[in-house]
From TrEMBL:
Its main location: membrane. GO terms for molecular function: monosaccharide transmembrane transporter activity; symporter activity. It holds the Pfam family Sugar_tr. It is found in: Membrane. Gene3D superfamilies: MFS general substrate transporter like domains (1.20.1250.20). This is Major facilitator superfamily (MFS) profile domain-containing protein. It is a multi-pass membrane protein. One of its GO terms (cellular component) is membrane. InterPro entries: MFS_dom, MFS_STP/MST-like_plant, MFS_sugar_transport-like, MFS_trans_sf, STP/PLT_plant, Sugar/inositol_transpt, Sugar_transporter_CS. The chain crosses the membrane at residues 20-40, 83-105, 112-132, 138-159, 171-194, 200-223, 285-307, 313-338, 350-374, 386-407, 428-448, 454-475. Belongs to the major facilitator superfamily. Sugar transporter (TC 2.A.1.1) family. Belongs to the major facilitator superfamily. Phosphate:H(+) symporter (TC 2.A.1.9) family.
Amino acid sequence: MAGGGFDSTPRKGKEYPGKLTAHVIVTCVVAAMGGLIFGYDIGISGGVTSMDSFLEKFFPSVYRKEKADKSTNQYCKFDSVPLTLFTSSLYLAALASSIVAATVTRKLGRKLSMLFGGVLFCAGALINGFAYSVWMLILGRLLLGAGIGFANQSVPLYLSEMAPYKYRGALNIGFQLSITTGILAANVLNYGFAKIKGGWGWRLSLGGAMVPALIITVGSLVLPETPNSLIERGSQEKARSELRKIRGVSDVDEEFNDLVAASAASKKVDDPWRNLLQRKYRPHLTMAVMIPFFQQFTGINVIMFYAPVLFKTIGFGASASLMSAIVTGAVNVGATLVSIVTVDRWGRRFLFLQGGIQMLICQIAVSVLIGMKFGVDGNPGVLPKWYAGVVVMFICIYVAGFAWSWGPLGWLVPSEIFPLEIRSAAQSLTVGVNMIFTFIVAQVFLSMLCHMKFGLFLFFGFFVLVMTFFIYFLLPETRNVPIEEMAMVWKNHKFWSRFMDDDDEIDQQRQ
């Protein structure tokens, strides 16, 4: 027994035959590239908005304010609602498109939803790269957001459905690895493009988003559809053939029959959104909302969005701040690789809890270090390089903790726990909640930094503490449980079992 008296040990049910084939590895690697578009946008936005030439062209009032501001209050130097609105508005479009994507993913397949995501993101990147007015920037951002909504809705589902259950964690985290790789690539490009004479490097940064968009667009055209989706849309023989191919064995009858039974149950559901509100889906609904909520309130995106601005605030010059953002991006990628290696060995709960404790310690340390040097008036005086370096070190340790816990698991766990009959709707809810709070945090961060000062890091640290207790008491272990057998983990959990109906359809199928 673990988790304050709640049983967190995964219960083994059916063990489907199959192995990790080259076919499924290649398929999942290509599909996971859908994360590049999300990561690239996260990484590129902060760097572009720190480029003087970009500000002068599109946000001249912000540019003049920054240049004219001779105050020494570092906390408020970059507080600008229009500037943060440019960065965060994309996520409202992602929220809207994720709702549409739920229907597309369910009725037309995971592949088509991924294709829409790539095409929309590519169009947005093209418009932003050639933008000459604010309305073009806004239109581009809306298209980018729509693309992210489709990709984030479909890719995690695709990966969880294609992967053998014993390797589902590692293969699904490929999506988060692509996000972190996109962030790192964007930081490196920002650093290089900012040095281009003539001040047009920002066009290359924004337009460069076409590259990851084309990767997922082409990839979606060559990828096979998941057996779950094929069965859901009536192509049972094709689904059986694909299941044999991705499992590498001819005897797939047991898993195939369970997928067919799950699909038959899902077709009895007229409205997946309404079905999601049923009592027996209370644990799924809770996780669909709370996991993405807590993921954003770790504070990670304020680091990734505004890394250059944040590092300027703690005493780095423009070029050095971009380089520091590269360092945190590299740490992000490296720590995500750690998660890939350990998630199916150590389990989801262990990584969630360990990462939460690590992030909390680092947030307290950063708050103390910045508070000691900046005080409440935001005047650091002469900030020694070694001191700024210590702050960056703790930020990097914090990023590592996130990157092997809440970063990948925030996408993995929701995508693997939903039954087929609510899967598309529930995944859209997860994406929607994620985008709402990404928007809110991105929009208010600089204003919060101005008003809360070093206490901002303690603010996010409080949520890290709460969410660590949430995981400890309420999330059962889902490692090594087949995706269509996931109901057992809720039935065996002391708290959630009270919401599960005794006559659950999955029990009937297994009898």
